[in-house]
Amino acid sequence: DKKKSSFLNAYESIQKEVGKGKLGFKRKHVRC
Length: 32
What we know:
This is DNA alkylation repair protein. It comes from Peribacillus simplex. The protein is mainly alpha-helical. 88% of the residues lie in helices and 0% in strands. It has one domain.
């Protein structure tokens, strides 16, 4: 559960980066 919530937190911050226009770089890490 801890891992899941930390992943959700990372996903949330990634979404924020996407909003800033940093989609290309961040998406690579998500796809892993």
